[in-house]
Specification:
alpha+beta, Glutaredoxin, two-stranded parallel ribbon, two-stranded antiparallel ribbon, 4 helices, 4 strands, 35% helix, globular, Iodothyronine_deiodinase, thyroid hormones biosynthesis
């Protein structure tokens, strides 16, 4: 959540050269798990409806101008991309050309921005 404002800026800056998408995966800090006070109050998802409701709650607080996909309850996207708690990827023509480190410390929008600037020819 803390990085969404900066993510929106990167989307705005590079929206003409890249398509952006956010995938909402399992909750990193659920109220019935490793909860951090002050975070979004969301329990572990027991149904896909709960996961969709949690994604909507996030978007109500931090709207995004890109498609938001919701991972299955079997966490297929999370397992395929090792996304928990958060991670950045650039996929070009079906090939991963950038894989960021795991967040929060490996979540480096500046690296994505540098890659996109290079791709754009800046």
């Amino acid at each position: 959540m803390a990085n969404l404002a900066r993510f929106r800026q990167v989307m705005e800056d590079f929206g003409k050269v890249a398509d952006f998408v956010t995938v909402y995966i399992t909750e990193a800090h659920p109220t019935d798990g490793w909860h951090i006070p002050g975070n979004l109050e969301v329990a572990n998802h027991k149904t896909i409806e709960e996961r969709f409701a949690a994604a909507k709650k996030m978007l109500d607080l931090e709207p995004l101008d890109c498609p938001v996909l919701v991972d299955s309850l079997t966490d297929d996207a999370n397992k395929a991309y090792n996304g928990l708690p958060e991670r950045l990827y650039i996929i070009q023509d079906g090939v991963i050309v950038y894989q960021g480190g795991q967040g929060p410390f490996g979540y480096k929008l500046k690296e994505v921005e540098a890659w996109l600037k290079d791709y754009k020819g800046e």
